[in-house]
Amino acid sequence: MFSNKELWAVSIASGIRSIGFGATWPFMAIFFNRNLGVPVYAVGIIFTLLSVGSIIFSLVGGGLADLMGRKKTLLTGSLISTALFGSVAINLYAGASVLIIATLFILTSIGGSLVFPSANALVADVTAEEDRMNGYVIYRIMANLGWAVGPLTGSLIINFGILWIFILVAACSIIQGLIVMVFIRDRWKERKTAEGSKKKLNMVAYDRYLLAFTLGTFFVTLVSSQFTVTLPVYSSLKIGIPENMMGYIYAVNGTVVVLGQFPMTNFMKRYPDMVSMIAGSIAYSIGYFLVSLSGNLPDLMFDMVIITIGENLISPVMNSIVSKIAPDDKVARYLGFMGMVNSSGRALGPSVGAFFLSVYAFRGLYVWSSVDLFGALSIMVFMVFTRMTRNRYAKPGVADTGS
User: Fold this and answer.
1) pLDDT (tens digit per residue) in 293-325
2) Do the Cβ atoms of 214 and 337 come closer than 8 Å?
């Protein structure tokens, strides 16, 4: 596993990308609200549209990764991200309108939607089935090293202006593309030769097990997506956390992943995959509920620890389960379908959270209890999926995910 050069290459590339994106997320909702004067409800709409782009292009990204190869799709996504974030920086410097900046920001969803299913499918390609969980753990830890460094970097850069954060994202996307170009082998020609025929571009791939499982991930994503808008806006406007301190809350997320992912995954190996999914939903719900009881920065940092435990329990297992459900020639499409469903959750999540903030006038107990209703729904769906898969093996030799 540790000598798997392609696994490490795609993982390190993801970590570099995450430095840039980790620097943006703590500040984007506040940037639109405070700097550009966009109302909170409209900020929610911007992030909803960002995720709508991900919904569409996750399917395209998965289909392209299966059709023309992981490497080419990763390079295309990196190039698009570089161009779009560079354009945001240029237009911001030129004093362009809020509409132009918001539109370009929404379009940045294209790059990520091409990169994520390709990168996750590549991890499955280069690892044996029995090592796949550890492969996704390595990938996630490296990505979250970026999420640990990125928010702290953003907290420093924000003092020089938000423009430099967009430049950082563009630069990190360039470096990601260079790593992919040099160290990742293009397996598409090998796969095409082995299959002996040219496949049609079919973006959609699903079955009833995938539909049931991704319904549960949709609900849990509605909870986890409060990370992007509701949590920073609530922390800033309700609790009064200064903008340049916001990165510390998000740096906790990356740090807990880096330090805790391997021990947690090794501990959970003694339990079925779905136990980890259900436990993760519970941790997410508890973490966000605790935000309603928080009144300062240390409280919020502790809440983020609990939230990230939920993320550690769910994220690598989620990808592994879908890669086991999928036929070998449709792994990226199945992951792309899950990406589409989860992007739907991320699309609705910011608007739902902003709606709760507005309706409940920032009264934390009402806001975060309402969010947690979706966590309860995810647990119920995962329990149903567990019963569905109790006697089903995704592939020969694959342990049952549900029992």
Assistant:
1) 999 999 999 999 999 999 999 988 888 888 887
2) yes
From residue 9, alpha-carbon distances to 2, 294, 318 in Å are 11, 40, 22
Q: Amino acid identity, residue 296?
A: N
Q: How far is CA 200 from CA 131, 356, 372, in A?
A: 30, 44, 42
Q: Which residues of the chain have pLDDT under 50?
A: 193, 195-198, 201, 393-400, 403
For residue 240, count other CB atoms closer than 10 A to its CB.
10
Quick one: tokens of 152? 């702290």
SS3 32: helix
Domains of the chain: 5-185+202-388 (1.20.1250.20)
Q: What is the pLDDT of residue 403?
A: 39
**Cβ count near 373 (within 10 Å):** 12
Q: Determine whether 243 is exposed, middle or buried from the number of CB atoms within 10 Å of its CB (0-12, 13-18, 19+).
A: middle
Mark residue 393 as left, alpha or beta (left: phi above 0; alpha: psi -120 to 50; beta: remaining). beta
